[in-house]
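User: I'll paste a sequence; please echo it back and then give the predicted structure.

Assistant: Echoing your sequence first, then the prediction.
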Amino acid sequence: MTPTDDENVLLRTEGRAGYITLNRPKALNALNHAMALRVEEALTDWQKDPAVETVVVTGAGERGLCAGGDIRSIYEDARAGGSASADFWRDEYRLNALIARYPKPYVAVMDGIVMGGGVGVSAHGSVRIVTERSRVAMPETGIGFVPDVGGTYLLGLAPGGLGTHLALTGTAVGAADALLCGLADHYVPSELLPALTGDLAHAPLRDVLARHVRQAPPGELDAHRDWIDHCYAAATVEAIVDRLLDSGVPAAKDAATTLLAKSPTALKVTLAALRRARDLGPLERVLEQEYRVSCAALTSPDLVEGIRAQVIDKDRSPSWSPATLAEVTDADVARFFAPLGARELRLATSDRPQEVAW
């Protein structure tokens, strides 16, 4: 049987906690429009419910919290010139902003695969937990898209060039590197997750974390900070690639090879979006920019071609247009940031951070 929209997000309350489970395990809990609206409705209701002190978000199955948005639906919509994807993103980004400003502890269990839209429903939360199975990524440039769901905001805050490296290459990171990049807060071994989530129904969050948080196993990125920080500080994607190739470091050369396989347009727009995000201020302003970029991507040939190559035909041989970085002009990049007029996403914002008492 195919789950109904309501069954794709399971909601329950127990004791002092409200539990949200993304429930599309066969699709790696990929988020669709109906799911985003159901999560938003639950959060809005629980925000006003004094019995719910903590919200806990998990993914069904053993493979991950959420692998992102429903890519096939976006592919069909882009091919048809439709508006369903833009409508979905409008509500999804509103949800991301709600999570970031949520006045109660929002505990996101980032176990397994957490990519794209999965980062949006987790990494904006107040308590973000990773495990030894976590693989966190914003892999959009590989399908001709640009990091969204507040990804350019989060990665723009990462130390040095780490966020730029992850955004451009789409590299998936484990627990320690997610912690280093500011995408997560605590490491908990996966075997302790049932106890942790269960305890949150009966005990204060601070006490539960104290019982279950452990030291994360060593990561990989910290040892590469020298070349990452130097190479990704370059002004353009072309200059970044040149620095990577000239560094003499095998891992840097591998990163250059990875970049040269991505959509040239997506790479240049991603770099511009990251650097603009740092000057925009609060998350809401960045989400508004991302909405412009995402809507523009719907009319870009690379999004359809990238999804075709990676997801539909799976030949892994996209034909990007333009095909090289040199062919992508400043005007091509600027088009992605053009105002949308009446279609703009406008989010209420507060520069004052939420005060969460726990």
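The radius of gyration is 20 Å. The longest helix spans residues 84-100.
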